[in-house]
Protein backbone atom coordinates (compact mmCIF):
# COMPACT_ATOMS: atom_id res chain seq x y z
CA UNK A 1 0.00 0.00 0.00
CA UNK A 2 2.80 2.36 0.98
CA UNK A 3 4.71 1.46 -2.19
CA UNK A 4 1.70 2.24 -4.34
CA UNK A 5 1.22 5.58 -2.59
CA UNK A 6 4.88 6.49 -3.09
CA UNK A 7 4.65 5.46 -6.76
CA UNK A 8 1.57 7.66 -7.21
CA UNK A 9 3.21 10.62 -5.50
CA UNK A 10 6.34 10.20 -7.64
CA UNK A 11 4.22 10.03 -10.79
CA UNK A 12 2.36 13.21 -9.82
CA UNK A 13 5.62 14.96 -9.00
CA UNK A 14 7.20 13.96 -12.33
CA UNK A 15 4.09 15.06 -14.18
CA UNK A 16 4.22 18.44 -12.44
CA UNK A 17 7.89 18.84 -13.31
CA UNK A 18 7.50 17.68 -16.91
CA UNK A 19 6.76 20.68 -19.16
CA UNK A 20 5.40 18.30 -21.81
CA UNK A 21 2.90 16.67 -19.46
CA UNK A 22 -0.59 16.79 -21.00
CA UNK A 23 0.67 18.63 -24.08
CA UNK A 24 -0.48 15.98 -26.55
CA UNK A 25 -4.01 15.59 -25.21
CA UNK A 26 -4.45 19.33 -24.72
CA UNK A 27 -3.35 20.13 -28.26
CA UNK A 28 -5.14 17.32 -30.11
CA UNK A 29 -8.49 18.55 -28.79
CA UNK A 30 -8.01 21.82 -30.65
CA UNK A 31 -6.44 20.59 -33.90
CA UNK A 32 -9.83 20.27 -35.70
CA UNK A 33 -10.56 23.90 -34.85
CA UNK A 34 -7.65 24.98 -37.04
CA UNK A 35 -9.62 23.70 -40.04
CA UNK A 36 -12.47 26.02 -39.13
CA UNK A 37 -10.34 29.07 -39.91
CA UNK A 38 -10.33 28.71 -43.73
CA UNK A 39 -13.90 27.36 -43.61
CA UNK A 40 -15.15 30.42 -41.75
CA UNK A 41 -13.39 32.81 -44.13
CA UNK A 42 -14.94 30.94 -47.06
CA UNK A 43 -18.42 31.09 -45.50
CA UNK A 44 -18.01 34.79 -44.68
CA UNK A 45 -17.02 35.82 -48.19
CA UNK A 46 -19.57 33.49 -49.80
CA UNK A 47 -22.29 35.11 -47.69
CA UNK A 48 -21.05 38.48 -48.97
CA UNK A 49 -21.58 37.26 -52.55
CA UNK A 50 -18.08 36.03 -53.38
CA UNK A 51 -18.03 32.21 -53.33
CA UNK A 52 -14.74 30.40 -53.67
CA UNK A 53 -13.35 29.85 -57.15
CA UNK A 54 -11.78 26.48 -56.50
CA UNK A 55 -9.23 26.52 -59.31
CA UNK A 56 -7.94 29.90 -58.15
CA UNK A 57 -8.05 28.66 -54.54
CA UNK A 58 -5.84 25.74 -55.56
CA UNK A 59 -3.51 28.08 -57.42
CA UNK A 60 -3.10 30.09 -54.23
CA UNK A 61 -2.21 26.93 -52.32
CA UNK A 62 0.37 26.02 -54.96
CA UNK A 63 1.80 29.52 -54.73
CA UNK A 64 2.41 29.14 -51.01
CA UNK A 65 4.07 25.76 -51.58
CA UNK A 66 6.29 27.26 -54.29
CA UNK A 67 7.41 30.02 -51.92
CA UNK A 68 8.11 27.40 -49.23
CA UNK A 69 10.20 25.25 -51.56
CA UNK A 70 12.20 28.29 -52.64
CA UNK A 71 13.39 28.65 -49.06
CA UNK A 72 15.22 25.33 -49.38
CA UNK A 73 18.11 26.58 -51.56
CA UNK A 74 18.40 29.70 -49.40
CA UNK A 75 18.55 27.64 -46.21
CA UNK A 76 21.30 25.52 -47.79
CA UNK A 77 23.29 28.64 -48.69
CA UNK A 78 23.25 30.05 -45.15
CA UNK A 79 23.83 26.73 -43.39
CA UNK A 80 27.43 27.64 -42.60
CA UNK A 81 26.51 30.93 -40.92
CA UNK A 82 25.88 31.35 -37.18
CA UNK A 83 22.48 29.91 -36.28
CA UNK A 84 20.81 33.18 -35.27
CA UNK A 85 22.01 34.97 -38.38
CA UNK A 86 20.86 32.10 -40.60
CA UNK A 87 17.40 32.16 -38.97
CA UNK A 88 17.22 35.92 -39.51
CA UNK A 89 18.04 35.60 -43.20
CA UNK A 90 15.63 32.72 -43.84
CA UNK A 91 12.88 34.39 -41.80
CA UNK A 92 13.44 37.71 -43.49
CA UNK A 93 13.21 36.07 -46.92
CA UNK A 94 9.51 35.35 -46.37
CA UNK A 95 8.51 38.74 -47.72
CA UNK A 96 10.59 38.48 -50.88
CA UNK A 97 9.57 34.91 -51.70
CA UNK A 98 5.89 34.99 -50.76
CA UNK A 99 5.08 38.42 -52.14
CA UNK A 100 7.18 37.74 -55.22
CA UNK A 101 5.28 34.54 -56.02
CA UNK A 102 1.98 36.19 -55.11
CA UNK A 103 2.68 39.08 -57.49
CA UNK A 104 3.60 36.65 -60.29
CA UNK A 105 0.37 34.66 -59.92
CA UNK A 106 -1.89 37.69 -59.62
CA UNK A 107 -0.24 39.35 -62.61
CA UNK A 108 -0.58 36.17 -64.65
CA UNK A 109 -4.29 36.07 -63.88
CA UNK A 110 -4.84 39.82 -64.17
CA UNK A 111 -6.89 38.98 -61.10
CA UNK A 112 -10.29 40.46 -60.39
CA UNK A 113 -11.54 41.04 -56.84
CA UNK A 114 -13.20 37.58 -56.56
CA UNK A 115 -10.11 35.88 -57.99
CA UNK A 116 -7.79 37.70 -55.59
CA UNK A 117 -10.07 36.71 -52.70
CA UNK A 118 -9.96 33.05 -53.69
CA UNK A 119 -6.20 33.09 -54.26
CA UNK A 120 -5.62 34.68 -50.87
CA UNK A 121 -7.86 32.13 -49.17
CA UNK A 122 -6.07 29.23 -50.85
CA UNK A 123 -2.73 30.69 -49.78
CA UNK A 124 -3.92 31.00 -46.18
CA UNK A 125 -5.63 27.58 -46.12
CA UNK A 126 -2.56 25.58 -47.16
CA UNK A 127 -0.55 27.37 -44.48
CA UNK A 128 -3.15 26.26 -41.91
CA UNK A 129 -2.78 22.68 -43.17
CA UNK A 130 1.01 22.96 -42.89
CA UNK A 131 0.66 24.15 -39.27
CA UNK A 132 -1.58 21.17 -38.47
CA UNK A 133 0.88 18.68 -39.99
CA UNK A 134 3.80 20.38 -38.22
CA UNK A 135 1.92 20.25 -34.91
CA UNK A 136 1.19 16.53 -35.30
CA UNK A 137 4.85 15.84 -36.11
CA UNK A 138 5.94 17.72 -32.98
CA UNK A 139 3.41 15.86 -30.83
CA UNK A 140 4.73 12.55 -32.15
CA UNK A 141 8.12 13.42 -30.64
CA UNK A 142 6.85 14.27 -27.17
CA UNK A 143 6.71 10.69 -25.86
CA UNK A 144 9.91 9.58 -27.54
CA UNK A 145 13.35 9.53 -25.93
CA UNK A 146 15.68 9.15 -28.92
CA UNK A 147 18.29 11.79 -29.69
CA UNK A 148 16.30 13.65 -32.35
CA UNK A 149 13.21 13.77 -30.14
CA UNK A 150 15.23 15.15 -27.21
CA UNK A 151 16.73 17.83 -29.44
CA UNK A 152 13.24 18.81 -30.62
CA UNK A 153 12.07 19.02 -26.99
CA UNK A 154 14.98 21.30 -26.13
CA UNK A 155 13.99 23.61 -28.97
CA UNK A 156 10.37 23.64 -27.81
CA UNK A 157 11.38 24.42 -24.24
CA UNK A 158 13.63 27.24 -25.43
CA UNK A 159 10.70 28.73 -27.33
CA UNK A 160 8.56 28.68 -24.17
CA UNK A 161 4.76 28.80 -23.95
CA UNK A 162 4.43 25.01 -23.62
CA UNK A 163 1.63 25.45 -21.11
CA UNK A 164 -0.25 28.00 -23.21
CA UNK A 165 -3.67 27.17 -24.62
CA UNK A 166 -3.67 25.97 -28.26
CA UNK A 167 -6.40 28.58 -28.82
CA UNK A 168 -3.62 31.13 -29.20
CA UNK A 169 -2.38 29.21 -32.23
CA UNK A 170 -5.86 29.25 -33.75
CA UNK A 171 -6.12 33.00 -33.24
CA UNK A 172 -2.71 33.38 -34.89
CA UNK A 173 -4.05 31.53 -37.96
CA UNK A 174 -7.04 33.89 -38.11
CA UNK A 175 -4.78 36.95 -38.13
CA UNK A 176 -2.25 35.42 -40.56
CA UNK A 177 -5.05 34.42 -42.93
CA UNK A 178 -6.40 37.96 -42.83
CA UNK A 179 -2.95 39.20 -43.79
CA UNK A 180 -2.61 36.83 -46.76
CA UNK A 181 -6.07 37.64 -48.11
CA UNK A 182 -5.48 41.35 -47.66
CA UNK A 183 -2.06 41.19 -49.32
CA UNK A 184 -3.58 39.38 -52.34
CA UNK A 185 -6.26 42.06 -52.67
CA UNK A 186 -3.77 44.92 -52.36
CA UNK A 187 -1.34 43.54 -54.94
CA UNK A 188 -4.10 42.52 -57.34
CA UNK A 189 -5.48 46.06 -57.28
CA UNK A 190 -2.14 47.87 -57.41
CA UNK A 191 0.73 45.56 -58.44
CA UNK A 192 3.54 47.97 -57.58
CA UNK A 193 2.53 47.77 -53.90
CA UNK A 194 4.32 44.40 -53.85
CA UNK A 195 7.47 46.49 -53.32
CA UNK A 196 5.90 47.74 -50.07
CA UNK A 197 4.46 44.41 -49.03
CA UNK A 198 7.85 42.68 -49.20
CA UNK A 199 9.43 44.58 -46.26
CA UNK A 200 6.10 44.72 -44.42
CA UNK A 201 5.71 40.94 -44.62
CA UNK A 202 9.26 40.23 -43.51
CA UNK A 203 9.01 42.85 -40.77
CA UNK A 204 5.74 41.36 -39.56
CA UNK A 205 7.26 37.88 -39.23
CA UNK A 206 10.50 38.99 -37.62
CA UNK A 207 8.65 41.32 -35.27
CA UNK A 208 6.36 38.49 -34.13
CA UNK A 209 9.36 36.24 -33.42
CA UNK A 210 11.07 38.94 -31.35
CA UNK A 211 7.90 39.74 -29.42
CA UNK A 212 7.31 36.05 -28.70
CA UNK A 213 10.73 35.87 -27.02
CA UNK A 214 10.26 39.06 -25.00
CA UNK A 215 6.63 39.27 -23.96
CA UNK A 216 3.39 37.40 -23.24
CA UNK A 217 1.26 35.64 -25.86
CA UNK A 218 -1.67 38.09 -25.61
CA UNK A 219 0.65 40.91 -26.67
CA UNK A 220 1.94 38.88 -29.63
CA UNK A 221 -1.63 38.02 -30.61
CA UNK A 222 -2.67 41.67 -30.40
CA UNK A 223 0.27 42.63 -32.62
CA UNK A 224 -0.62 39.96 -35.18
CA UNK A 225 -4.32 40.89 -35.07
CA UNK A 226 -3.59 44.56 -35.71
CA UNK A 227 -1.25 43.79 -38.59
CA UNK A 228 -3.45 41.14 -40.18
CA UNK A 229 -6.78 42.91 -39.86
CA UNK A 230 -5.39 46.25 -41.03
CA UNK A 231 -3.95 44.56 -44.12
CA UNK A 232 -7.27 42.89 -44.87
CA UNK A 233 -9.17 46.15 -44.31
CA UNK A 234 -6.79 48.00 -46.65
CA UNK A 235 -7.28 45.36 -49.33
CA UNK A 236 -11.05 45.50 -49.07
CA UNK A 237 -11.17 49.30 -49.08
CA UNK A 238 -9.05 49.52 -52.24
CA UNK A 239 -11.76 47.73 -54.21
TrEMBL record:
Official protein name in the record: YhfC family intramembrane metalloprotease
A biological-process GO annotation: proteolysis
Keyword terms, alphabetized: Hydrolase, Membrane, Metalloprotease, Protease, Transmembrane, Transmembrane helix
A molecular function GO annotation: metallopeptidase activity
Keyword Mitochondrion listed: no
Transmembrane segments: 30-50, 56-78, 99-117, 123-142, 178-200, 220-238
Taxonomic source organism: Paenibacillus apii
Keyword presence, rRNA-binding: no
